[in-house]
Write a structure and sequence with these properties.
This protein is of the alpha/beta class. The protein folds into five domains: 96 residues, no CATH class; 157 residues, Rossmann fold (3-Layer(aba) Sandwich), CATH 3.40.50; 100 residues, Sandwich (Immunoglobulin-like), CATH 2.60.40; 236 residues, Rossmann fold, CATH 3.40.50.880; 78 residues, Immunoglobulin-like (Sandwich), CATH 2.60.40. Helix content is 20%, strand content 34%. The protein is elongated and about 165 Å long. It starts with a strand and ends with a helix. The model has no long low-confidence stretch (mean pLDDT 85).
């Protein structure tokens, strides 16, 4: 909009200080005449005044101005907490009303920006305002309007602009919100022990009643819920036993409070990884042989293993008449190991052990019961497994996954390369071993030269010979596990014979599978959430297409999908889908279930879900603005939009003011001298002549 502004201006011919000096001289010159009351003094003073005015060069100036409209900024909070209930729709309606009201002012431009969800940093309201103000001249800024729930997490000490700030909030003041606050939650726990969670249930915006209590429901890995009564507003400790290795998902839910804003933060999810303490392994070597050190070195190399090792150097039937006081040996503590402390061991390894009366049938039966009850047993056998002293002929034979053949063909000798079976290619113990056979390609690891022929009775053959004889048999017995290695030649790989082989890796995997390490479960379903994506991994040694995976979201929504085979991983398939909703996600393949915890994408945002003005109102009032509520009706109570002059109040009970800056751009200037030289000179001379004539009479 263009307008013309006229005014008086001076463009002095001489500097102002010199004009002031001339004026002083004129006064001094007039002083004697005034003292004597001489005639013509007035005309003389008038001539001096006209001369000084001419030297000041007065002009009539007319400016042509182009008025620039003021700019107001409207920021709408679109974070998660600002969309709870009807807040989003209410603020959308208020925004439309404010934009329509601003359009009625011809000298006002309203710029609207959205504040997106800020991730784990909370709501960055003032960061968004500063970013939007970067291209707005401060001289044209009329004010800032923030449509927000007040949950800002970047509140500065003072604002970086001088215009009024108005905060418009959905709903009404006085909202109440119940939340669970996890004070301390351990990320790890030792299997067989307990961990402690420290939590508090609080009612924000309401007084915490003395002696008040609330029901807290605890559910772990989809098991039956456990309900506790916890004090309201005070810390509560929860003790949880760690029963297995791997992650356990614990969900805590506080009962809903009537009238609270949302139940989104009534739930908290904690993931606790169960880890085993130092593993206790009992290694019993039946006789010294070349592969004995292989087992000892393997188990001693693991700092997490406490190894107890006994070697039977002299069986009971051998007696070389050496006096007992000259034997530097200790008696084999049979009763202490296999009856008193048997269940303290996580794994028992028999390395070429033959039954020569050292272990009575009662103790062997104890070992079988120990395995059925959840223990682990590994047998590495040689020629002794085929004779009358074979452990297969004892009560221990009832849990072994294979029985040795009898006769002269039971012991096979000759060079061969062990092979991974089709089931072994899908089993985590032998899957992906370096040098293993793949498809029709033969293995490229070293030869073995002896193995025991046996008939599998249960379990899985994960390794065999080129003739199809089993070499490594794995089985689950009751709650426990058994592994049978039908050759004593694996030590050749550790010596690098014929190129060697992955001896340490194979035995380590077998031992950890026996001790039920979660990463080595051959039939398992695992779920994890990272970066907002749910990944469900299914492992199975069964051939054929995998079944559909059913995924249940925290709100009960059910989706189904068929997992895809993971490249180069045999029996492993993977299903991926978005998982942005916080809470416990459940996956099932029809036989097994897996759980994964999705933390809130913005924990600061859901810590307090009330619409609250206390954080931003002091800043708004410091800049001349204020806070306004939209109410809870169907139609929001949008405050009236007004224009106010600079320095006037910019906020009222039902209105908000945007400052009128009157910023302009001068497009043209026209100047008209009021005393041009051609007029000033005769006027001064004429007045001087009149003064001279009056004084001469």
């Amino acid at each position: 909009m263009r307008q013309a502004i006229s005014g008086l201006d001076f463009a002095p011919i001489l500097p102002w200080w010199l004009l002031v000096a001339l004026a002083v001289l004129a006064i001094l010159a007039l002083a004697p005449a005034v003292w004597r009351r001489a005639r013509g003094v007035a005309w003389r003073a008038l001539s001096f005044a006209v001369l000084l005015l001419a030297l000041a060069n007065p002009r009539l100036v007319e400016e042509t101005r182009e008025t620039r409209p003021d700019i107001a900024l409207l920021v709408q909070d679109r974070s998660d907490s600002a969309r709870i209930g009807g807040r989003g729709a209410q603020m959308d309606a208020a925004r439309a009303a404010l934009e329509a009201a601003a359009a009625r002012f011809p000298d006002l431009e309203l710029r609207s920006v959205d504040l997106p969800e800020g991730g784990r940093q909370g709501t960055r309201l003032f960061t968004a305002i500063d970013r939007a103000l970067a291209d707005i001249p401060r001289a044209r800024l009329a004010g800032v309007i923030a449509l927000t729930d007040g949950q800002a997490h970047d509140v500065p000490g003072q604002l970086g602009f001088a215009a009024p700030l108005h905060v418009v909030l959905p709903g009404r003041p006085g909202e109440v919100d119940r939340r669970i606050r996890v004070i301390e939650a351990p990320g790890y726990g030792i299997v067989g022990r307990t961990v402690e969670l420290r939590v508090a249930v609080e009612d924000l915006g309401a007084e915490q009643p003395q002696g008040g209590a609330v029901r807290l429901t605890l559910r772990r890995d989809g098991a039956a819920p456990r309900v506790e009564s916890v004090p309201l507003g005070r810390e509560h400790r929860i003790t949880l036993p760690i029963e297995r290795g791997g992650p356990s998902v614990v969900e805590l839910t506080a009962e809903e409070r009537p009238g609270e804003v949302s139940t989104l933060n009534n739930r908290a999810v904690v993931t606790i990884n169960g880890v085993r303490d130092r593993l206790r392994v009992l290694l019993v070597s039946g006789e010294p042989h070349s592969g004995e050190r292989t087992w000892r070195r393997l188990l001693k190399a693991d700092p997490n293993v406490d190894l107890v090792h006994f070697t039977i150097l002299r069986p009971p039937e051998k007696d070389d008449l050496t006096p007992l006081n000259e034997l530097a040996l200790i008696a084999f503590p049979v009763r202490e190991l296999f009856q008193v402390k048997l269940r303290e061991f996580d794994l028992i390894v028999f390395d070429r052990f033959s039954n020569r009366g050292i272990l009575p049938p009662m103790y062997l039966r104890n070992i079988a019961d120990y395995v059925r009850g959840g223990g682990a047993l590994l047998l590495s056998v040689g020629p002794e497994f085929t004779g009358a002293t074979s452990l297969a002929s004892t009560p221990l034979g009832s849990i072994l996954p294979a029985r040795p053949l009898t006769g002269r063909g039971a012991l096979a000798e000759g060079a061969f390369r062990p092979r991974v079976t089709d089931q072994g290619a899908r089993h985590p113990v032998t899957q992906g071993l370096t040098g293993a056979n793949a498809g029709a390609a033969p293995p490229n690891w070293g030869h073995w030269y002896r193995h025991l022929r046996a008939e599998p009775t249960s379990g899985l053959s994960v390794m065999d010979t080129p003739d199809g004889d089993p070499l490594l048999q794995l089985d689950r017995v009751g709650e426990g596990r058994v592994a049978l290695l039908l050759s004593d030649q694996i030590w050749l790989w550790s010596r690098g014979h014929d190129g060697g082989g992955p001896q340490a890796e194979l035995l380590r995997r077998a031992a950890h599978w026996l001790m039920r390490e979660p990463e080595l479960e051959e039939e398992d379903l695992v779920a994890r959430i990272e970066g907002g994506m749910l990944t469900v991994t299914r492992r199975s040694v069964e051939a054929g297409p995998p079944p559909e995976i059913t995924v249940t979201a925290p709100d009960g929504t059910v989706t189904r999908g068929r997992p895809m085979a993971a490249g180069g991983t045999g029996g492993q398939t993977v299903l991926e889908q978005a998982a942005t909703m916080p809470g416990v996600w459940q996956a099932s393949d029809g036989r097994r279930q897996a759980f994964a915890a999705a933390a809130a994408a913005n924990p600061l945002e859901i810590a307090d879900l009330r619409a609250e003005a206390s954080r931003v109102q002091p800043l708004a009032e410091a800049n001349g603005g204020g806070s306004h509520w939209l109410g809870r009706g169907d139609r929001p109570l949008v405050p009236e939009l007004r224009r106010v002059a600079a320095g006037r109040d910019a906020s009222g009970a039902s209105w908000i003011g945007l400052r009128r800056n009157q910023d302009h751009l001068v497009t043209g200037i026209a100047a008209l001298p009021l005393l041009p030289p051609w007029l000033a000179l005769p006027l001064v001379l004429g007045l001087a002549l009149v003064a001279w004539r009056r004084e001469g009479r």
